[in-house]
Automatic annotation (TrEMBL):
Gene3D superfamilies: Homing endonucleases. This is DOD-type homing endonuclease domain-containing protein. It comes from Kribbella orskensis. Signal peptide: none annotated. It comes from the Bacteria. Residues 77-231 form the DOD-type homing endonuclease domain. InterPro entries: Homing_endonucl (IPR027434), INTEIN (IPR006142), Intein_endonuc_central (IPR004042).
Length: 260
């Protein structure tokens, strides 16, 4: 008996096709055969058959169209983008924003997808498996929101925030830091030893946050946000920032916390 796809599935596949998603990727996402995706495109796009879900609203760009932008969500997504994200050209002038995350932290992957929807309300983020989970969403205007987009690795080129990005970060430094520490950072338990007056060597354990990135520019963005919140930090290595003082760790625990 042939499989019958819901109209919702057809509409979702056609929207992705409109946005430049390849037939193969579209088929994988919707659990359909490639020839089925092509058939839907032929029937609905080329022959002009009516679509029940046609007329879905486009997402207007906060930069080009002065549309509203959720500043808190954007600052959070910016942190993830600077740490483990990139944008890439797709087809027909569409770009894909991709954020990578460790598969064992499924809660964070869900959080990334939810944050993407807040920044692009009509977006439909999809998750791809492998050694890393990739959360992706497509839009023509990602380069408008992430002007750091460009060829090559981030640590090999200049990364600086535009004035309007700095204004958002100044309002939501905690959200930026959450994205940065959850992408290229961690919360770990360290230990040290101290000799007591009795001569006994006692071991002490303490929590600290660590962020590691090869881009000096991105490290500067992180430390500037820490300074805004008056959280003390230090540079134990060239490519690393650490927050070890108890007050600073407790502050970060309030809005970053361990990965989950």
């Amino acid at each position: 008996m042939p499989r019958v796809s819901s109209q919702e599935t057809v509409e979702s596949a056609l929207r992705m096709s409109d946005q430049g998603v390849s037939d193969r990727v579209n088929a994988d996402i919707h659990g359909a055969a490639i020839k089925t995706i092509r058939k839907w495109r032929r029937l609905y796009q080329r022959q002009g058959l009516p679509r029940l879900g046609s007329g879905y609203p486009a997402t207007h760009c906060p930069r080009c169209d002065e549309a509203d932008l959720n500043g808190s969500a954007y600052a959070h997504l910016l942190g993830w983008y600077l740490g483990d994200g990139h944008t890439a050209d797709a087809r027909r002038g569409v770009y894909v924003l991709s954020i990578s995350n460790d598969p064992k932290y499924s809660g964070l992957s869900d959080e990334i997808a939810a944050t993407m929807r807040l920044v692009k309300p009509t977006g439909s983020p999809c998750k791809r498996g492998g050694q890393a989970t990739r959360i992706e969403v497509r839009w023509k205007h990602w380069p408008c929101l992430f002007p750091q987009h460009g060829p090559g690795r981030k640590h090999l080129r200049k990364i600086e925030l535009a004035d309007w990005q700095q204004e958002i970060v100044a309002r939501y430094p905690d959200r930026l830091l959450r994205g940065l520490f959850h992408s290229d950072g961690c919360r770990v338990t360290n230990w040290t030893t101290r000799e007591l007056k009795s001569g006994e060597i006692k071991r002490y354990e303490y929590l600290r946050y660590v962020f590691a990135n090869e881009s000096e520019d991105i490290i500067g963005i992180l430390t500037a946000a820490l300074d805004l919140l008056e959280i003390p930090w230090r540079r134990p290595r060239r490519n690393m920032v650490a927050v070890s003082q108890r007050a600073g760790v407790e502050a970060l625990d309030g809005f970053v916390g361990p990965k989950s």
